[in-house]
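Re: ME8 structure - here you go.
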Amino acid sequence: MSKKYITTPIYYVNGEAHIGHAYTTFIADSLARYARLKGEKTFFLTGTDEHGQKIEESAKKNNKPTQEFADEISASFKNLWDAFEISYDKFIRTTDAEHKKGVQHAFIKMYEKGDIYKGEYEGHYCVSCEAFFPETQLIDGEFCPDCGRSTNIVKEESYFFKLSKYENALLKHYEQNPDFLMPKSRANEVINFVKGGLKDLSITRTSFTWGVPMPSELNDDKHVMYVWLDALLNYVTALGYGNDDAKMQDFWPADYHLVGKDILRFHAIYWPAFLMSLDLPLPKHIAAHGWWTRDGEKMSKSKGNVVLPKEVADAYGAENLRYFMLREVPFGQDGDFSQRAFIDRINSELSNDLGNLLNRIIGMSGKYSDFVIDSKDVAKYHQKELSAMNKVLDSLDIFMQNVQPHRYLEELWKLFAIGNGAIAEHEPWVKMKNNQKDEALATVALVANILAKAAVMLHAIMPKTTNTIANALDFTIDTASYNDLIVEKNILKVFNIKKVPPLFPRIEEPLMPEAPKAEPNPPKEEQKLQNSEDNLIEIGQFFETQLKVGTVVDAQEVPKSKKLLKLQVDLGEEQPRQIVAGIKEFYTPDDLLNTQVCVVANLKPAKLMGLMSAGMLLAAKDEDGLCLIRPEKPKKAGTPIG
Ligand code: ME8
């Protein structure tokens, strides 16, 4: 029997789940339900990631002992998924004793293999991303290239994993397994990163304690494990790795690791390298989805525009939300949640295409044949529609295998077009009047069968709704009916129709309060910096950035800073602006005094080393160093650029 092992990322317990988390979980749940429906042996894992500096700091901010804080938030994730009837087989917590034991076991294995050595880490750490960055990747020598937040300088004794050793093996794996990374468009990003050279990875920390302790064999208890080593290993410890490996035999390697694009690097580079070191096979697919925004804006607590899954589900229905999210966005691309788009899909696709078709069949069967539908004449009158239906049904599976739920649903919806088209063309009500009852009932039976098969194939995405449809049509959705109706292509011979209330009442007005109006310019540190091709901007977005020519009227060193200079820049305003720039390694204050620079003038002011900075200088940096971008000829201070 074939099997499927499907995972979500384990979510950090530092805040409430929002629709971004829900999206990953909905897709994984749909894949798992689909596999079970097909009769595959399935294991679906989700859970929470509870260690690391970020969680320790969040707990402190909330004045709670770290474990208690983690317990509460982990429970809130679990409760949320239970409310959505997410069909996970295991909810793992990285604070579980078996998980910690498994991680220690893996550490020892890698150590014994010679892949771990002790050294000293010196560099930059972003607590929010829980990631190390070499200085060359930082923005302005300080800010995280992934999330834009300020990084900390870390200098501490550390154990390192020999990531560099696996560079070639990783590249070979990507080449030989073109479906390893999904969608394929994301593969280049990863391959280029690896080709750029992998540095050994610091995998322990000594500056805090909230992590998996070192294995006692190493006798070095001032270290705790790096949270990503701990977290990634959840995918095997959940199967008993390091404790009782029976499930490992059954389910490893994973078939699908579902992740957001923000954590693709950890899954596509670190994780396979760890597995190679442990002599374990690599997962079959790592599928990375895009980023959700709300009404075009990044969601953030400070803006108060975070969409909470429970709120949406209460207003619009949990399964409508699942349908919307999976249908709205081509997997891999960024998506936007807006109530307008959501309502449009509910009204046109769920209510019109699907809901009305069911109502018509219930109505016609009641009127023409006392709610009993016999399929005996379907093949006689509807060969064309039956073959179109089978063609659609045959096309669907590959979209699920390739993690393209949007394409799957798009194709599936063609069934309703076939059903609605048959009714429009054959006008059963006319045939009933003209004494052609057999023909009229054949059309009703055709559509009932289309609905039944569509319900089976929609079941993984809308389990309850499709059970209601199956109940109205008097059959059960399970592996047996999947085999009968989809694999064997049989049709249901008789339907005893039951009336059900309309499944998708039309929605006229938004059912939730609108998001607070966005600030015109989101702060720089809140902008996700992504290097992907889907990041093209409109010209209007470019002009949201106000660029101006400025004249440096004063320049000073910032005491104790290796990188920063404090400038006063005349932008033609009442007073010069103070701008703190990370250019000290390349310019002295004298180089700058009375020269002109190009300034981003509408950046939200930020504090750097305790100094307010109200703007940013444009500069270009390569391996030869940094140079400022300046006007070719002197221009009046404050002249706009663009
Ligand atoms: O990264 N749009 O956890 P996490 C789409 N603990 N998806 C989003 C999203 C958004 N706006 N925001 C979050 C971690 N996500 C680690 C994972 S796995 C071994 C460790 C989704 O809680 C996205 O899938 O910060 C992201 O990858 C995931 O939530 C986890 O976020």
